[in-house]
Amino acid sequence: MSIEDHWYRRDHVSLALWPVAQVFWGVAALRKALIQFTNRFRKKIPVPLIIVGNIMVGGTGKTPMVVWLVKYLQSQGYHPGVVSRGYGGESDHYPLAVTAVTSPDQGGDEPVLIARRTGVPVYVDPKRPRAATTLLREHPKVDVIISDDGLQHYALQRDIEIVMIDSRRGLGNGFLLPAGPLREPPSRLKLADFVVVNGPSQDADYRMGLEAGDLVPVRGGTETSSMDAFRHQDIHAVAGIGHPDRFFDTLRAHGMQIIEHAFPDHYQFQPQDLRFGDGLPVIMTEKDAVKCRAFAPDHSWFLPVTAVPDRAFAEQLMTRLRSTHAG
């Protein structure tokens, strides 16, 4: 068993690591206090900044939420931009402007996906405040910035915080790293403006679903295919994301006989990773597809998903954003 297997139960391993978790939190809390004190003397970014993050490791639906936010804010007359750490990419200079043709090796898989899906300015930098400042200088029409992740990046201004939670995994065993999956204690949720649960939930204030679209060729082209076309077929399912089971279950729900290939989140795929030697179709996530386009087999497809939040969330978000503008 890996350490992650103990994050969703309170057993002898997670309990033994609990004291280490308290040390981790003490150091993190001290760092947070020092950064927040320093922030008092920094110049404020002149537009509202919305952070989409989580308090636990692993995928919770942040990137689909960011894409939805961009398009929803555009429909309300805003001109959004996006900043990100650019995890999984490495550039020789920062800030880096990410476009639809930027290599994921430079910009990171999620920023490239966001740029391709939205077309808005996307900037990555380990120092997110610098990314936001550069974005505004080079795109003066931008009037709201969305940060893809960054909830624990306290050097970054935040006017609205949206915390994502996966309905299946919840908060795990409720312990902090390394005893559990949490970066911050559950009490941190009380400080966020919105807590959105990705998936079915009976007691969530706000919920979000993921709507699957038609399959798209990884290597490009305009031809798409419905998932029903692969019903009762054997296929290779490839996922290098934080929570691959949700992706695998979606394919199974459409009647596919899948052979699972789960890779670590932000995995840097190589051509041999997709050579299975049997000619079966390969279906992967959109985030993985941005890294595999140059060498994916001809019979490879990716599954785009679209976030569908509660209407109440959209309404309350606009109320909060307008009050931020007024302030």
What is the gist of this entry?
The protein is built from 8 helices and 14 strands.
Largest sheet: 9 strands, mixed
- Count of DSSP E strands? 14
How big a fraction of the residues is strand?
15-25%
**Could you give the order of strands across the largest sheet?**
3-4-2-5-1-6-7-8-14
- How much helicity do the residues have? 25-40%
How would the global form be characterised? Answer: globular
- CATH architectural grouping of the largest domain: 3-Layer(aba) Sandwich
Residue runs with pLDDT of under 50 for 5 or more positions: none
Radius of gyration, CA atoms, in whole angstroms: 20 Å
Which CATH class of the largest domain?
Alpha Beta
Number of helices: 8
Oligomer: single chain
Spatial gap, N to C terminus: 51 Å
**Helix and strand sequence:** HEHEEHHEHEEEEEEHEEHEEH
Query: How many structural domains can be distinguished in the coordinates?
Result: 2
Nearest-integer average pLDDT: 93
Q: How would you explain this protein's 3D organization?
A:
By secondary structure, this protein is of the alpha/beta class. The chain has eight helices and 14 strands. The chain has two domains: 162 residues, 3-Layer(aba) Sandwich (Rossmann fold), CATH 3.40.50; 90 residues. The strands form two sheets. Strands 3-4-2-5-1-6-7-8-14 form a nine-stranded mixed beta sheet, sandwiched between helices.
